[in-house]
Amino acid sequence: MRLTSKAAAGVLVICFGGPVAASSEPALTFDQGQALAKQMACLGCHQVKAKRVGPGFIQVAQRYAGQPEAFEYLSQMIRKGGRGKWGAIPMPAQTQVSEQQAKALTQWILALEP
Asked: DSSP alpha helices (H): ranges in 1-114?
């Protein structure tokens, strides 16, 4: 697993194409994203590489790769929840996740590659 990235002044910068780059939210390193996902309880239902209750984050990144609306859609999905996109088990709304945290998590997820 790797992130598409480049080093700039000793800081890992995650590079995005399309609408994700338009976000003003700071990019997270892999470890920072994983720590935020753990802090927000995402890892209770998701793993990075494999399906748990919900899809693995890499599966999400693959499904939404190259889709211009993916960033906004997934940011909202984290906070509002959803059903029917990945099977019978719905994703409950994650009201403990702020809009800024949801956007940071979305950037991190969309940057994941197998």
From this structure: 30-39, 57-64, 70-80, 99-111
Between the alpha carbon of residue 77 and those of residues 6, 82, 101, the distances in Å are 29, 6, 13
What is the C-alpha to C-alpha distance for residues 80 and 109, in angstroms, rounded to an integer?
A: 17
Which tens digit of pLDDT belongs to each residue from 1-13?
A: 333 333 332 333 3
**Which tokens go with 92?**
């409950």
Number of independent structural domains in the chain: 1
Q: Which two tokens stand for residue 74?
A: 């997934």
Calculate helix-pair angle for 70-80, 57-64, nearest 10 degrees.
140
Assign residue 74 the CATH number of its domain: 1.10.760.10
pTM (two decimals): 0.76
Pairing of strands 2-3, 112-113: antiparallel
Using H for helix, E for strand and C for coil, what is the string for 40-66? CCHHHCCCCCCCCCCCCHHHHHHHHCC
